[in-house]
Amino acid sequence: MNCLAQDISALLAILAGTGAPYNIEKIKSAFEFAKELHAGQTRKSGEPYISHPIAVAEIAASLKLDTDAICASLLHDTIEDCPGKVDLAQIKRRFGEDTAIIVDGVTKLISLPYADRDEQKTENLRKMFLAMSKDLRVIFIKLCDRLHNMRTLSSHDEEKQRLIALETMYVFAPLAHRLGIHKIKAELELLALQYLDPIGFDEVKREVDKKYGQNKDFLLKAQDTIKNKLKTQNFQFSIEGRVKSIYSMYKKMYNQHKSFNEIYDFYAIRILVNNELECYTVLGLIHEMFKSMPGRFKDYISTPKPNLYRSLHTTVIGRDGIPFEVQIRTWEMHAEAQYGLAAHWKYKTGAQGDVNLDKKLHWIHTLLESEGDVADPDDFIRPLKIDIFQDETFVFTPKGDVVNLPAGATGIDFAYAIHTEVGNKMVGLKINGTIAPIDTALETGQIVEVITSNATRGPKRNWLNSVKTSEARNKIRQWYKKEQREENILYAKSEVDKMFRKLKGTQSEDERNEVLSNIAKRERFNSTDELLNAIGYGGVSLSKITQKIKLEIDRINVGDTTQTTKQVLTESTGDLTNLTGGVIVDELDNCKVKYAKCCNPLPGDSIIGFITRGHGISIHKYTCSNVVAGLANLETRDRFLSASWTKKSLEAVVASFESQINIVSFNTVHLLADISNALADMHVGVLSISSRMIDEDHILLIMTVKTRNTEHLNSIVSKLKRLPDITRVTRA
């Protein structure tokens, strides 16, 4: 027992400090079970692995989560990291159904076969969001888990640090924001920034420390002035001063290109009072004491943010001419600001639910609506990046009701946010009383009215190209799925035919039908028409199915059974590359092959050959998604041949291989010049380059370059990573 107390004494102290009732014996039992299962395991840092679930439980306890959540925190890695020792059924028997559900929701899907890591990551996120829609404690614990992993990220190699930090910055920190958990959001952003841009972090930190040091007395004086005023009014209050976080300053300086002097909320004073009336009274006193800055007042009490955040914000000019922000809220509002939805969690009180809270969770519930109609995990996650991870826009109905939408949302999104039938019958839009196109991007403060007609046939298919929210997209898809089956099939046939015409080797109608029939079976559709219907209403992405069609064409185009492997290897075809002395296939070193464009293998990669008719031997990376799928299929498994690079190819000095590099960077005017100069210094030839915006601040560059081998490519990637503004460089 002494050992137990020593191991989780900090956790027990936190739980006792909350004043909430906990089943301590159940928590101790969960700890003992987790400690037993993780025995002998260590973290990258060398610490006993059990230290991680304990730390996660401590963070969960600081959010005042309930007993089942604390138990799940201690057990959250047992299924994933202790295979064969425990399963969900055991956890359910020992700790109850709720604990088992949470553990299952947090557990990664490592046991399922995925074509690549990106697909696995996407499916993990999909599962997490769906589990979260059923029990919000799943995401609370996932955030606690991610926070501790970020606190201990230094034990990983540099590449892993950047990958984890990127996912943290663009998935988990925004999610914490949407859930209103400021404590975790702020720390995640700060930790991620240190790994993504350590130089920028240090520069901003120096500036923050310098400016705070120069004006520290000003902030203290302003607090004293306000204190004295509030005391004369007999308020019960709390007051504290702070400076803007390093990450917030970084965002404004680097993303919005603002100088320190242009950031008016660098200094802030927070005032806590008893009730809403006192909030507005204190606001009036503040405006009497200091000169307010026009356009810098925000009332989040009358119009709360979707994450439950409520407060009054105003920016005023201090006696020394220094601007500062004043935040005024009640103690209850402050708890919501720090802990978000965790502060309202109904499991803590045993309540049956809160109507207002359920409204705030509407964005989560819509996930369940979409899951059944979207076959592709990536198509499920993509809209979430818009719905959840972007800033909000607040607009009003003609009756004055507030509707919150993601930034960039259109009139169509607004219509479906009101009601499904409003969207389906939409024929026009009014913004502030003026007729506007229905796909107009809405702005905060606008009064929006939807014009409907019972005579309309329903939504237009091209609306899918305009909408920004998953709710609108899924409702449009549902309408087409139910009402327009024949039209969907005809539309999909037309699009698929266009795709076939671009591909070689599928000239006959019978071949095309065979390709689609086989894909339908593999995608678990009952018929080809069901597959086409799903493509037509958007449940299956046409672009995502392209690779599946190409692979199926290869399966159909297998050579005659009478043709020997050696004949296939040595036959000369027009589109093959003469690689004599470069690749050895099935112990033959003078065969003609071609490199697969799907994975662009390089000398140094583990490779494998695939027999095709009319295309000889196609060389793939062993980790290529098409190879993974082909090896898993009994029909194509025998068509794969062993392949390896010759010593000559590994030591080549001429860059004769194509490689694709993906670069994620801040969108700066000198970006291309910096990259071009770096590649020129390395004598690297660029074959093609394309780009697209990821979000408001980031751009993706896709470059095809000439390389010699994997070692050469790695040196190129390493050099590009060191350039300013670039956040990520990967081989495609």
Using brief descriptors, characterize the structure shown.
Ubiquitin-like (UB roll), single chain, 6 domains, 49% helix, 6-stranded mixed sheet, alpha+beta, disordered N terminus, 732 residues
Give an account of the 3D structure.
α17 (362-371) runs parallel beside α21 (470-483). The strands form 5 sheets. This protein has a 6-stranded mixed β-sheet with strand order 11-13-15-14-16-12. The protein has a 5-stranded mixed β-sheet with strand order 1-2-5-4-3. By secondary structure, the protein is α+β, with helices and mostly antiparallel strands. The radius of gyration is 29 Å and the shape is globular. It contains 30 helices and 20 strands. It has 6 domains: 2-196, Hypothetical protein af1432 (Orthogonal Bundle), CATH 1.10.3210; 199-341, 2-Layer Sandwich (Beta Polymerase, domain 2), CATH 3.30.460.10; 360-482, Beta-grasp domain (Ubiquitin-like (UB roll)), CATH 3.10.20; 484-556, no CATH class; 565-643, no CATH class; 657-731, Alpha-Beta Plaits (2-Layer Sandwich), CATH 3.30.70. The relative contact order is 0.05.
- The best one-word shape is globular
| Biggest pleated-sheet summary | 6 strands, mixed
Supply Rg.
Answer: 29 Å
- The CATH superfamily name of the largest domain is Hypothetical protein af1432
CATH topology of the largest domain: Hypothetical protein af1432
Total helical elements:
30
Low-pLDDT residue intervals, each spanning 5 or more residues? 1-6, 109-118, 346-355, 367-375, 380-390, 559-566, 568-581
| CATH C-level category of the largest domain | Mainly Alpha
| SS class | alpha+beta
Estimated helix fraction: 40-55%
- Calculate the terminal CA-CA distance, rounded to whole Å: 53 Å
Count of distinct structural domains:
6
Strand elements, count: 20
